[in-house]
UniProtKB/TrEMBL annotation:
InterPro entries: ArsR-like_HTH (IPR011991), DUF2087 (IPR018656), HTH_ArsR_DNA-bd_dom (IPR001845), HTH_MetalResp_TranReg (IPR051081), WH-like_DNA-bd_sf (IPR036388), WH_DNA-bd_sf (IPR036390). It comes from Priestia iocasae. The lineage of its organism: Bacteria, Bacillati, Bacillota, Bacilli, Bacillales. Residues 1-92 form the HTH arsR-type domain. It comes from the Bacteria. Keywords: DNA-binding, Transcription, Transcription regulation. This is HTH arsR-type domain-containing protein. PROSITE patterns: HTH_ARSR_2. CDD domains: HTH_ARSR. The keyword Transcription regulation applies. PANTHER family: TRANSCRIPTIONAL REGULATOR, ARSR FAMILY (PTHR33154), TRANSCRIPTIONAL REPRESSOR SDPR (PTHR33154:SF33).
C-alpha cells in the first residue's frame, strides 16, 4: 500500500458513521435499508458512505436477487492497520527473518552478486525478490528506466523481475512510475 493510499484509507475510516457501518458489518452482511434503519440515516446517506468505503476496498457487495448485501473486507482492514504499524515501528523479527533468508538467496547468486538463475520455487523466488528490492527506498517514485537499470546490475531479464515485483505486491505501478509498497502488503513467504 503506497503512503498516499494508506492516508486515503485512514481518511475514509476517519468518519464516525463509517466506523459504525463497519462495526455493524463485522457482525454479518446487511443491505442498505437495514443499515439505514439501524443507524437512523436516509438511504442516500448510506449510499454515499458505502461508496467511500468501497473506494478503499474496506467493503464489498454481493447481489442476491434484487437485494445488494454489503460485507466487511476484513483482510483489507487488517492489512491497512498493520501497514500503519509497520510504517511507524520497524519490526525486529523481520530483520531476523531476512538474515535466515539470505542463506537461501546466496545459492542463487554469483560471487559478484549477480543472479545465477531466477528460482522456480515461489518461496525462494520471493526471498530473492526481497533481497533485490532492498536497493529501493520507500516513499520514492522511480521511473521504469531507473528500475530497469537497477535490475540490469543483477540480471539481464529486467522485465521479468520488474513484473515479479508487481505480482508479489512489493511495488506499485502507475503510468510507468513505480513505488515500493510497505512490507505488510508483500506476498508472504510460507
Amino acid at each position: 500500500m503506497q503512503l498516499n493510499r494508506l492516508v486515503s484509507f485512514y481518511k475514509t475510516l476517519g468518519d464516525p458513521t463509517r466506523i459504525r457501518i463497519l462495526s455493524l458489518l463485522a457482525k454479518g452482511p446487511l443491505h442498505g435499508q437495514a443499515l439505514a434503519g439501524k443507524l437512523g440515516l436516509t438511504p442516500p446517506t448510506i449510499t454515499h458512505h458505502m461508496n467511500k468505503l468501497k473506494d478503499v476496498s474496506a467493503i464489498y457487495q454481493r447481489r442476491e436477487k434484487n437485494t445488494i448485501y454489503f460485507y466487511i473486507n476484513e483482510d483489507v482492514i487488517r492489512r491497512g492497520s498493520s501497514a500503519l504499524l509497520s510504517l511507524i515501528f520497524e519490526r525486529e523479527d523481520e530483520k531476523k527473518m531476512d538474515s535466515s533468508h539470505y542463506e537461501v538467496v546466496r545459492n542463487f547468486l554469483n560471487q559478484d552478486g549477480t543472479i545465477k538463475q531466477i528460482p522456480a520455487q515461489r518461496k525462494k523466488k520471493l526471498m530473492l525478490l526481497r533481497h533485490l528490492i532492498k536497493g529501493f527506498e520507500r516513499g520514492i517514485k522511480y521511473e521504469e528506466k531507473e528500475i530497469n537499470e537497477y535490475i540490469k546490475k543483477y540480471h539481464d531479464d529486467y522485465a521479468t523481475i520488474r513484473r515479479e515485483f508487481i505480482m508479489a505486491n512489493m511495488m506499485y505501478r502507475d503510468s510507468n512510475v513505480y513505488e515500493v509498497n510497505p512490507e505488510e502488503l508483500w506476498a508472504k513467504i510460507e
